[in-house]
Design a protein that fits this description.
Distance between the termini: 89 Å
Number of helices: 26
Strand order of the largest sheet: 7-6-10-11
Helix content: 55-70%
Radius of gyration: 27 Å
Number of strands: 11
C-alpha cells in the first residue's frame, strides 16, 4: 500500500508540473503532432511496397559493404583500370557505415533506406520548432504560449513548402541532411554565444560529424553555415553600436572556438574537401562560361518565382510545357494555387510592420532579401553586379546554380511567417474582431492544403507512367541483378567486366530505372565502359564499344586480344535497355542482338 501511495504522489506531482508549466500543451503535444504528421507524410510520400528509391544522381548502396570498403582508400578500383579516389566521397563514410551496420543486422536495404528517409523528414519540423524556442528564449525571460504558436507555424512551413516539395521529388539523404541540420546549427550557435557556454561548441562539432555526408556537395554544407555568418555579423555590429565591449569579446571568443573545434573534430573530411573544392572552382573558372551557365540557371529565377519559392530551374522542363513532376502543374498553372503561394511571403514580410522591430525579425528579413538578390542570377535589376559577384568571389562561384540560395530564404520565411501571422492576429484582436482567432487556424490549414502532394503520395518523381518527364525514382530492381552480382562477387580471381551496350553516362531500362552504371553498386569487380577510365584505357574501351554498337557495317573484327589486354573476363550485356520517345518507352532489342552476335564471333 505504501508503494501505491508513493506512485500516486509521483503521478500527482507530474500532473501539477504539467499544469503549472504548460509543458504538455506547449511543448510535448505540438512536437508529438509535428512528428506524427511527419511520419504520416513519410509513409504516404516515400514508401511504396517493394520499391527502392533510386535513379538519376541518387546514390543509395545496393551492397553496402562494397561502398564501405572502397571509400577509405586513396585508390578507387571500381572504374576501368582504377584512379585516385574523389575526396568528395569521404564524408559519405558515415552514410555507408549506417547501411552496412543495418545490413549486418539483417535489416533489408529497402527498409534501411526508408528508416533514413523517414527519420530525416520527420525530424526536420521539430528542429525548426526548437530553433524558434531558442530565439524566443533569447528575447525574453519567459516563453509565452504565443511563442509556441509562432514556433509551430514556422516548423510546419519549414517542412511543408514548395522548395522542400520539389527537393523531395528526388529524395537525397545528402541534401536533406543539410536542410534538417540548419535550424539546429543556428540554435546551438545562438544559445552558445548568448550564454557563453562552450558545451554548444561540442554539440555543433558532433552535429557536423553526423551530417558529414551532406559535404559530398560543398553547397549543402555552405547552406548550414550562411545563417551563422549572418548572425555573427549582426550581433557584432549591434554590440559595437551599443558599446557592449564585454559581449563583443565573448562573441568573438565563442565564434573562434566554434571554428577551431569544428575544424579539429571534422578535419577528416574538411581537409580533403578543401582540395576537392579548389579543383571544382578551377574547373568552373577554366570553363570560361560562368556567365552563360548563370543565365541558363536563371531560367526560373525571376523575382516572383523566387518570392514564392518556385525558382528551381527544373520546375519547368526544357521541353516547353513539360513538367518534371506532375504535382507542379497546379503550382505553375492553377490561379488559386499561384495566388496562395504569394500569401506566405507577403505575410512573412508583414512582420516588418511591427512598431517595435526586434533583432530577429530584422536578421531574417535582411538574410531573405540578400538571398533573393543572389538567387535572381542573370535577371534585372543590377544584373551586372550579380554576375560580377558570382564570377569574382570564390564561394559564390560555387553557387552558379543560383537556386541553391533558396534554403536560406525558406529558413527566413518560416520564422517571419509565424511572426507575421501573430501580427495579423493582434491587429484584428485590438479592433475587437471576433474572427481574429480564425487567422491562426486558417494559416495552419492553408499550409496543409496548399502542400497537398505530401498527402496524396505525389511527391517522389514517378516518371512517364504518371505523365511526368523521364523515369521514376521508385523502382523495383529485378532479382536477376542481385543473382548476377552474387555469382560475380563470389569469384576470387581478379578481373574486369565490360558493360555493354554503353554510349551514355545514363542509361534507361524497361523496368523504370534511369541513372548511372548499376554495376558499380553491385559488383566488387571494376567496370569498363566508354564513360569510365582515362587516356589509353578510355581509348581502348571506346574502340571496343564503338565496334559493338556500330550499326552501319557487318564487318567482323576480333577484339578478344583487346579484351584480354584490359583483363576483361566477362561482358555484361544488358537486355533491359530502353529509351524514351514522346510518351512511349521503346525497348532496345536491335542493339543487344547486334552486340550479342559480334561477341559470339569472338569465340
Amino acid at each position: 500500500m505504501e508503494m501505491i501511495r508513493k506512485v500516486n504522489d509521483i503521478i500527482l506531482s507530474v500532473k501539477d508540473n504539467f499544469k503549472k508549466n504548460n509543458l504538455f500543451w506547449l511543448i510535448f503535444l505540438p512536437l508529438f503532432f509535428l512528428f506524427l504528421i511527419g511520419l504520416l507524410a513519410s509513409f504516404i510520400s516515400f514508401s511504396k511496397q517493394g520499391y527502392y528509391i533510386l535513379g538519376g544522381d541518387l546514390y543509395y548502396p545496393l551492397d553496402p559493404k562494397i561502398d564501405l570498403l572502397r571509400i577509405p582508400f586513396a585508390w578507387d578500383v571500381r572504374y576501368a583500370t582504377g584512379g585516385t579516389s574523389e575526396a568528395r566521397h569521404i564524408p559519405s563514410l558515415i552514410y555507408f557505415l549506417y547501411f552496412f551496420l543495418l545490413d549486418k543486422l539483417s535489416i533489408p536495404l529497402i527498409v534501411a533506406q526508408k528508416i533514413a528517409v523517414f527519420s530525416i523528414f520527420t525530424l526536420t519540423a521539430p528542429a525548426m520548432y526548437y530553433l524558434v524556442l531558442v530565439i524566443m528564449q533569447d528575447q525574453k525571460k519567459e516563453i509565452e504560449s504565443r511563442d509556441h504558436l509562432i514556433a509551430f507555424i514556422a516548423a510546419l512551413f519549414y517542412n511543408y513548402n514548395l522548395w522542400n516539395l520539389f527537393n523531395w521529388a528526388a529524395p537525397s539523404v545528402h541534401l536533406q541532411l543539410s536542410y534538417f541540420a540548419v535550424p539546429l546549427v543556428l540554435a546551438f550557435f545562438i544559445k552558445g554565444i548568448r550564454e557563453f557556454n562552450f558545451l554548444y561548441v561540442v554539440y555543433l562539432a558532433i552535429l557536423y560529424v553526423l551530417i558529414a555526408p551532406a559535404a559530398s556537395n560543398p553547397i549543402y554544407t555552405l547552406n548550414t553555415i550562411w545563417p551563422v555568418v549572418f548572425f555573427i555579423t549582426f550581433i557584432l555590429i549591434k554590440q559595437v553600436v551599443i558599446h557592449d565591449w564585454k559581449g563583443l569579446t565573448q562573441s568573438v571568443l565563442f565564434s573562434l572556438s566554434v571554428l577551431a573545434i569544428f575544424i579539429l573534430i571534422n578535419s577528416w573530411w574538411i581537409l580533403l574537401m578543401l582540395d576537392a573544392l579548389k579543383d571544382s572552382v578551377k574547373i568552373i573558372e577554366n570553363s570560361g562560361n560562368v556567365w552563360r551557365w548563370l543565365d541558363w540557371k536563371s531560367t526560373r529565377s525571376s523575382f516572383l518565382n523566387i518570392f514564392r519559392l518556385t525558382n528551381h530551374e527544373a520546375w519547368v522542363h526544357t521541353t516547353p510545357g513539360d513538367l518534371i513532376i506532375a504535382s507542379a502543374q497546379g503550382y505553375v498553372k492553377n490561379f488559386f494555387l499561384i495566388f496562395t503561394s504569394f500569401v506566405f511571403p507577403v505575410l512573412a514580410f508583414s512582420s516588418l510592420l511591427k512598431k517595435k522591430k526586434n533583432f530577429y525579425v530584422l536578421y531574417f528579413s535582411i538574410m531573405a532579401v540578400t538571398m533573393i538578390f543572389l538567387s535572381k542570377g542573370g535577371h534585372a535589376p543590377l544584373r551586372s553586379i550579380n554576375m560580377f559577384l558570382h564570377e569574382k568571389i570564390l564561394i559564390l562561384t560555387l553557387y552558379r546554380s543560383v537556386e541553391w540560395y533558396t534554403p536560406m530564404i525558406v529558413l527566413s520565411y518560416s520564422f517571419l511567417l509565424g511572426e507575421g501571422t501573430l501580427l495579423a492576429y493582434d491587429f484584428l484582436k485590438q479592433r475587437g474582431k471576433t474572427q481574429a482567432k480564425y487567422i491562426l487556424v486558417s494559416i495552419i490549414v492553408i499550409i496543409f492544403v496548399f502542400n497537398y502532394p505530401f498527402w496524396t503520395g505525389k511527391v517522389v518523381h514517378q516518371g512517364k507512367w504518371t505523365g511526368e518527364i523521364a523515369n521514376p525514382y521508385f523502382v523495383k530492381i529485378p532479382n536477376w541483378y542481385f543473382e548476377a552480382s552474387r555469382w560475380i562477387n563470389n569469384q576470387q580471381d581478379d578481373f574486369r567486366i565490360l558493360s555493354a551496350p554503353s554510349d551514355n553516362p545514363y542509361y534507361h531500362t524497361d523496368w523504370g530505372f534511369s541513372g548511372g552504371e548499376l554495376g558499380i553498386f553491385l559488383f566488387n569487380k571494376p567496370i569498363i565502359n566508354n564513360i569510365f577510365g582515362w587516356a589509353g584505357t578510355k581509348k581502348l574501351s571506346t574502340i571496343i564499344l564503338d565496334y559493338l554498337n556500330d550499326e552501319t557495317g557487318n564487318k567482323k573484327i576480333v577484339i578478344a586480344r583487346l579484351l584480354g589486354l584490359m583483363n576483361i573476363k566477362y561482358v555484361a550485356l544488358r537486355h533491359d535497355g530502353a529509351y524514351w520517345t514522346g510518351d512511349r518507352m521503346i525497348k532496345i532489342k536491335k542493339n543487344t542482338r547486334r552486340v550479342y552476335e559480334k561477341l559470339k564471333y569472338q569465340n
